[in-house]
Amino acid sequence: QVQLRESGGGLVQAGGSLSLSCTASGTLINFYAMGWYRQVPGKQRELVATIPSGGRTNYADSVKGRFTISRDNSLKTVYLQMNSLKPEDTGIYYCNAADWGGRAYWGQGTQVTVSS
Questions:
Q1: What is the DSSP secondary-structure string of 56-110?
Q2: pLDDT at 60
Q3: How many Cβ atoms from other residues are within 10 Å of residue 111's Cβ?
Q4: CB-based contact 34:96 (threshold 8 Å)
Q5: Residue 36, exposed/middle/buried by CB under 10 A (0-12, 13-18, 19+)?
Q6: Nearest 10 degrees: CA dihedral of 23, 27, 29, 35?
Q7: Each residue's pLDDT tens digit in the chain (116 positions)?
């Protein structure tokens, strides 16, 4: 019943910026945490950033200082501001949400491509 919809992906030159957003619909459940993962060919999906409800943000070492995650609980939306993008940031970015019972939900992904 829960649906997550990502938007904001695209093609950008190295050093540029993109802003992603993800909105949950179809439920009144408040999420314990929301976050972003990414996947590149030949690799497993990896954590980019998470933000628990009322907690501290967490970032992968590779994006610390460049990416910022935030959320708006009233809108059930999570954002990812990506600055100083590098070619290795290229991948499909997936929105993730976890409810208080531990169930995880995933969006369909949005493509981010960073050219050198």
A1: --EE-TTTTTTEEEEEETTTTEEEEEE-S--GGG-EEEEEEEEETTS-EEE---E
A2: 98
A3: 12
A4: yes
A5: buried
A6: -30
A7: 789 999 999 999 999 999 999 999 976 667 889 999 999 988 999 999 999 988 789 999 999 999 999 999 888 899 999 999 999 999 999 999 998 888 999 999 999 999 99
